[in-house]
Every structure is written in C-alpha cells, then in structure tokens.
Predict the structure.
Amino acid sequence: MSGGYLLFLLAAMGGMVLIDRGFRLFFWRDARRATVVLVIGVVFFVAWDLVGIHLGIFARGASSLATGIVLAPELPVEEPVFLAFLCYLIMVLVNGAERLLSRGKKDAP
C-alpha cells in the first residue's frame, strides 16, 4: 500500500496527541515552548540526515509502503514526519517520567 508508512506515522502521532492532551505533558503544558523544542529537534535531525546523505552514509531504501515522494535526493517525505514523531514521543516520555518521579518523591516519607 503506497503511503501506508506515512499513514501509520500520522496515526501514531495522533495517539501521542491524545496522550499528551490527556496528561498535559508537552503541548498542552506549554504550547509555545513545545513548538520551539519540536522544531529545533526536527531541524537538527533533518540536518543530520542531510549530512549523512551527502557523505553516502544514509540512503533511501525501496519500499512498497512509502509514497515515493522525496524532498531531496535520498530524503523521503516520511523522514521529517518520523523525526517529528520521534521528538514528540521522547518529550512526552521525558515529561511523563519526570511527573511520575516527582510524584514518587512526594509520597516518600
């Protein structure tokens, strides 16, 4: 299914949004700061990918699940979406872990 990977990434991102909204972990905690952090993370990792592509380290693999749309040579459109999901996931996990650990400190004698 062409585009299946992109659809999966978007569905997973939607799940992260629901978790974030329900627990107010990242965007629902401070939208402006979250946007800045997410954009910096995605820009950093796209730049990292572009350097890796230029050095011949990274290459786009053939897949029937990908759309086939490329933003630059060897940089499929799915890559920035994946990187955004990855950065979002990490920030939700970090903020969730921080909340759980701080709750544990409050409960300790």
Observations:
- The beta strands are 70-72, 75-76.
- Residues 78-107 form the longest helix (30 residues).
- The helical segments are 4-23, 31-54, 78-107.
- The mean pLDDT is 93.
